[in-house]
Amino acid sequence: MSAQSSGTPIRVLIVDDHRMFSQALELLLRGEDGIQVVGSAATGEEALEMCASMEVDVALVDIDLPGIDGVAVTAHLRERHPVVRVVVITAFQAPNVMARAVKAGASGYVMKTDLADTLVGAITMAMSGNMVLPAGRLAPPISALGRWDVGAPTAAGSPPPSPAERPSGPLTDREVEILQAIANGRSTQDMAAALEITEHTVRSHVKRIFTKLGVHSKAEAVTKGVRLGLISTDPEVEQ
User: Coil, helix or strand for 125?
Assistant: First the structure.
């Protein structure tokens, strides 16, 4: 159950080495209904320690941190504390960095210049299992990732998926088609219209995709689909 549906606030941890910026973020979020800043960390290591000692729902992680960078922090958080959603914040919209963040498991990627307008929405969307990117689409970062190579480590330095991480069963052509459409930012209504099926059928396909991939959200499904090479890397692909 999400913090929103349970009536409890979304607990947010700020991870940024610039104290004044962290304070500005906390001030920005203060008073927002349904959001509570539970702490701030100046390094990735400190963030991991804090997540181990307190309840955190969403971590706002600066990409440029001393020591381990924001992408590595994201990967470690998702491995050690999978319930924590990560929203990466950065001053640069670099497709390769965005791609690495998505592959590491980030649920959002928000420009610092847009924080005032988008931060609250990014936090709530991440909490609900959706993904937020500056362009509103996943095709550019997916294209930057390239197809996953079985023999290569991930961008965050973790090993390739083990056999246990493989889908419990092969995705059908229609399920791959829908997963690609999700990655392209298509809504359930759009997919139903484009594929000439009902919205109920689309949702049934999505549920089966989640079951086969062993995930619980569209963001996780897309991340795993990219990692397993199930999704096209062509930014022109449309369903």
Answer: helix
